[in-house]
C-alpha cells in the first residue's frame, strides 16, 4: 500500500507558529493501519526511504497527493532475521530531557 496525504488540505497551528500537521496526522493513520495489518496475522514495516518523484511518475498519482509511506504487506517469516539496528538500544538519556518548567 502507498499512503498519500493531500497537500491542498491545510491543517496548521495558524494561531501560533503555523506548524503543519500533515505528517503527524498521516503517521497516526499509518500506525493504526500497521496495527490492523498485525491484527490480521500479516506483517509490514514502514518504508519512508523511496524516490517520491519516481513513484509519482510511475503511478497515476492525482495532483496534490504526496507519498508519505509505503507499507509492504505479506505473511511474516517464521524465522525472521532482525536488522543490526534492532539490537542497538539507545540510552533513555539520549532522547529524554528533564527540565524545570
Ligand atoms: C518514518 C519511518 C520510516 C521508515 N523507513 C524505512 C525504510 O525506508 N526502510 C526500512 O527498511 N525500514 C524503514 N522503517 C522501518 C524501521 O526501520 C522499522 O521500524 C525498524 O526496522 C523496526 O525494526 P525492529 O522492530 O527490528 O527494531 C521506517 C520507520 C519509520 C517510523
CATH architecture label: 3-Layer(aba) Sandwich
The overall pLDDT, averaged over residues, is: 94
Structure ligands? flavin mononucleotide
Helix count? 2
CATH superfamily: NADH Oxidase
The percent range for helix content is 10-25%
CATH fold category name: NADH Oxidase
Topology as a string of helices (H) and strands (E): EHEHEE
Find the structural class using helix and strand composition. alpha+beta
Strand order of the largest sheet: 1-3
If you compute it from the alpha carbons, what radius of gyration comes out, rounded to the nearest whole angstrom? Answer: 18 Å
Shape: flat
Number of strands: 4
CATH uppermost class: Alpha Beta
- End-to-end Cα distance: 43 Å
Low-pLDDT parts are none
Q: How many domains?
A: 1
Largest sheet: 2 strands, antiparallel
Q: What percentage of the residues does DSSP assign to strands (E)?
A: 5-15%
Note down, in words, how this protein is organized.
The protein has 101 residues and is α+β, with helices and mostly antiparallel strands. A two-stranded antiparallel sheet has the order 1-3. It has one domain: NADH Oxidase. It has two helices and four strands; from the N terminus they run βαβαββ. The chain is 25% helix and 15% strand. It is flat. The N and C termini lie far apart (43 Å).
Amino acid at each position: 500500500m502507498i499512503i498519500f496525504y493531500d497537500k491542498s488540505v491545510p491543517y496548521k497551528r495558524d494561531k501560533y507558529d503555523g506548524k503543519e500537521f500533515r505528517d503527524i496526522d498521516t503517521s497516526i493513520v499509518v500506525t493504526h493501519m500497521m496495527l490492523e495489518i498485525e491484527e490480521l496475522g500479516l506483517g509490514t514495516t514502514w518504508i519512508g526511504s523511496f524516490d517520491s518523484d519516481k513513484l509519482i511518475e510511475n503511478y497515476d498519482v492525482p495532483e496534490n497527493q504526496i507519498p508519505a509511506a509505503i507499507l509492504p504487506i505479506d505473511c511474516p517469516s517464521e524465522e525472521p532475521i532482525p536488522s543490526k539496528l534492532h539490537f542497538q538500544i539507545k540510552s533513555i538519556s539520549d532522547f529524554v530531557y528533564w527540565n524545570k518548567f
